[in-house]
UniProtKB/TrEMBL annotation:
Homodimer. This is tRNA (guanine-N(1)-)-methyltransferase. It holds the Pfam family tRNA_m1G_MT. Gene3D superfamilies: 3.40.1280.10, tRNA(m1g37)methyltransferase, domain 2. The lineage of its organism: Bacteria, Pseudomonadati, Pseudomonadota, Alphaproteobacteria, Rhodobacterales. It comes from Albidovulum denitrificans. The gene is trmD. It is found in: Cytoplasm. S-adenosyl-L-methionine binds at G149, L169, G170, D171, F172, V173, L174. It comes from the Bacteria. One of its GO terms (biological process) is tRNA N1-guanine methylation. GO terms for cellular component: cytosol. It is an enzyme of class 2 (transferase). One of its GO terms (molecular function) is tRNA (guanine(37)-N1)-methyltransferase activity.
Amino acid sequence: MSGEEKPKSHGRLRVSVSAQPRDLMAPQRVKGAWAARIVTLFPEAFPGTLGLSLTGKALDQGLWSLETIDLRPFGIGKHRNVDDTPAGGGAGMVLRADVVAAALDQAAIGTPPDRAAWPVVYLSPRGKPFDQAMARRWAAAEGITLLCGRFEGVDQRVLDHYAIEEVSLGDFVLTGGEIAAQAMIDATVRLLPGVLGNASSTEEESHSHGLLEHPQYTRPAVWEGREIPSVLTSGNHAEVEKWRRTEAERLTRERRPDLWAKRRGP
Ligand code: SAH
């Protein structure tokens, strides 16, 4: 194995020992900050939307860090092949166990072996569905390694050998794990202290108490003949809270009977 290419990090907090632009992209492991390491064939997909708005600002501030580990340099032979035909035949290609393992070994450097402190996850439509509780658990860890699949996926042996957890973004099939990784990192990073700032609360939004959020309104007071529910402009905070609670329960019952049933218990 050889990681000829250095892993790339994003965000401005970098150790720069030389003025060379390449060195400015050297791996940055900000001590103490929550860290995401992504093993991918497409490192250029990152930070993607994670570089924007609140997650992007937090990345620049060093509240979290992002490092991509390119699978390609771990490929075999002159062409750095990372995949091969599936054993048993059939369509498509499968990412090789040895190639993926070499990249995972690099991603593991300096991380705790305890999977609760540092989950190692393969993005997969076969996995456990991602949810807010998982985002909370991940945010409480030191960091995470996410393996993005492509083609038909990865050799099962590497998943078994490294005790990798499979997690799904939902019941549909994407062409690769990169979008799923970004969605899950976004949901996790916004739970880290300081990322949303004081104005926002992750306590009252959808899924934080097993309920969907109540409807939101802002100016203008009347739009297209539609008024804002008068209770919201009444100044009566207790009544506002009651209305929001009722609406959240109504929406959850109507739209997500599965969530509603879970909340009420058996
Ligand atoms: N043959 C596989 C699908 C491969 S899709 C199967 O039927 O299960 C290619 C890659 O996209 C996967 O390896 C995975 O990393 C990613 N992917 C596809 N759908 C996903 C989903 N719903 N959640 C997370 N990752 C997904």
